[in-house]
Design goal:
heterodimer; A: 324 residues; four-stranded antiparallel sheet; 4 strands; 76% helix; B: mainly alpha; 79% helix
Chain lengths: 324, 211
């Protein structure tokens, strides 16, 4: 027989179509970002030609708005990634609903028991807690559910506000070089604060997915009236939280420093500050992206644990789980 | 193991009796996500340190060519980091897809049903292709920065030429980074597709198994 994609319950079908629409919207947004980045590439080619012609004012004007456009382009692709992740959050919920309705007809009669105070088991995916009832939601999961949307919203606003400032800066270069430098500092500071917030929002979306996997897995097991096995927080998850926090702090610090630099636009020290603030803001984004890698690795581990648990419930004895 | 392929209007599915192992790309993802992350975490501080050194040269009023050269080297280090971290994200996504493939198959096998596995969707193929293109472009930009930086440091490249190359390479880096992010969005779309398929398949299992 072949799978029939129309056999889902109604609520699942609604989530499926919404999730598919979000995936398409997210990829379209990311594609839009690539096209915007291509505009920036063309601009860079034109600016390089002006360098050869020795037209410094034109180069400065082109570079100014090119920076704004390029950062907005990368922010747009990140928004696209976030929209696709939002769709995945919906599918995780639909998966829990389906498991809750289907698994009672698949699992073996219960032979498991759990002491009143709970216990721990070792699994191939790390130690897991065993309890009678679903565990309470972790603070980081609650924060993730609450904060991903505001972070993405504020991030997008900051980046696009910076784009407008970059256009104003571009038109100021020829008339007032000092004012243009000050504006340039604001553009870089605010746009990279926005980029940091966007990556923070993506991190919180990944945290929301992890919350859905943890809470949903426990919910399914409790519904089956089986001991609730919950994977303890892996090291990758702890490092993810640390890197994300550090990355956001660095982006906030660079924003403050750029704001300070804007007051020194007419001073020789501006050039020194601007020289190291560029690498600092990129370092912050690097930390956030590294955190995202660890969040994805945690999702892979949690999923592996869940498949292992469900397979054990259906038929295979959980012989590789040793009570500690 | 008998393996046949059924053709459907909605998606291609591979059918087998036992759970499939992760495919080669997913296996590579499982092996390489951590080394790529480690490389990124080493490159970012190097890029930052080179930026700080360059600021020191600016403060000392050093030769413009040396300042420009260090700018190229610092950018190269930072973008080795970005190329690595985006590769790590892509490999981590591939690893998740591998877990879905073998885990979803394991549940079907345990239930005593035929194991249906989704064949790689178009989004998955585009994910791999775009990721490779973006990575090659970023690596090419990094190599370009090292060559131009070396030329500036040795005096073989004029300052204006170095500035031109900095602008061109910056444009290439931006397009490559955006392409990498597009690839990642396609990789995540593949995860959403696989999730949808597994939800459907799970709903079919009770009717296929006689317990």
């Amino acid at each position: 027989m072949s799978s029939n994609l129309n056999t889902l319950p109604r609520s699942g079908s609604i989530r499926r179509s919404t999730s598919s629409a979000l995936s398409r919207l997210g990829v379209s947004a990311a594609l839009g970002g690539v096209l915007l980045a291509t505009v920036s590439l063309v601009n860079a080619v034109v600016a390089a030609t002006e360098v050869a012609a020795g037209n410094e004012a034109a180069v400065a004007a082109l570079v100014a708005w090119s920076f704004g456009v390029a950062t907005a382009a990368l922010a747009t692709t990140k928004l696209g990634v976030a929209i696709v992740l939002w769709g995945i959050v919906g599918r995780i919920r639909a998966r829990v609903e389906t498991m809750t309705s289907v698994l009672p007809r698949l699992i073996n009669p219960s032979q498991e028991s759990v002491p009143a105070g709970g216990t721990h088991v070792r699994t191939p995916f790390g130690p897991a807690d065993v309890t009678r009832h679903p565990p309470t939601e972790l603070a980081i999961h609650r924060a993730s559910r609450l904060l991903w949307a505001p972070m993405l919203g504020m991030g997008a606003m900051a980046v696009y506000a910076g784009l407008v400032l970059s256009v104003i800066q571009s038109s100021t270069v020829a008339t007032d070089a000092t004012a243009a430098r000050a504006l340039g500092a604001w553009v870089q500071g605010i746009q990279f604060l926005g980029e940091g917030m966007l990556l923070g929002g993506i991190s919180f979306l990944l945290g929301t997915i992890l919350a859905g996997l943890r809470g949903g897995g426990a919910e399914v097991q409790a519904h089956l009236e089986r001991p609730v096995h919950t994977l303890q927080m892996p090291l990758t998850a702890k490092l993810f939280i640390g890197l994300m926090a550090l990355g956001v702090i660095v982006e906030m610090a660079q924003f403050g420093l750029y704001a300070y630099a804007s007051t020194l636009a007419g001073d020789p020290s501006f050039a020194i500050l601007a020289t190291w603030l560029g690498p600092l803001r990129e370092f912050g984004l690097g930390l956030l992206l590294s955190g995202i890698v660890l969040a994805l690795a945690t999702i892979a581990r949690v999923l592996g644990f869940q498949f292992h648990r469900v397979t054990g419930l259906i038929g295979r004895p959980a012989s590789n789980e040793v009570t500690s | 193991m008998t393996r046949t392929t059924v053709h459907r209007t909605d998606s291609g599915v591979s059918v087998s009796r036992t759970a499939p192992a992760p495919n080669i790309l997913q296996h590579i993802g499982r092996l390489l996500w951590l080394p790529m992350l480690a490389m990124a975490l080493m490159a970012f501080p190097v890029g930052l340190a080179l930026g700080l050194s360059r600021a020191g040269l600016v403060a000392d009023g050093a030769d413009g060519a040396m300042v420009a050269a260090l700018g190229h080297f610092g950018t190269a280090a930072m973008f080795i980091g970005f190329a690595s971290v985006f590769a790590a994200i892509s490999f981590a996504i591939a690893r998740i897809l591998g877990v879905f493939r073998s885990g979803g198959g394991g549940i079907q096998e345990a239930a005593g049903a035929e194991v249906h596995s989704l064949r790689m969707p178009a989004a998955g193929k585009a994910f791999v292709g775009l990721m490779l293109m973006a990575m090659m472009a970023l690596v090419a930009a990094v190599i370009g920065h090292v060559i131009v930086g070396s030329g500036l440091a040795s005096g073989g490249t004029a300052l204006a030429v170095g500035e031109q190359w900095a602008l061109w390479l910056e444009g290439v880096r931006r397009v490559a980074t955006a392409t990498y992010l597009l690839a990642i969005s396609l990789g995540l779309t593949t995860i959403a597709t696989v999730l949808g398929f597994q939800i459907t398949r799970l709903g079919e299992l009770p009717s296929e198994t006689a317990r």
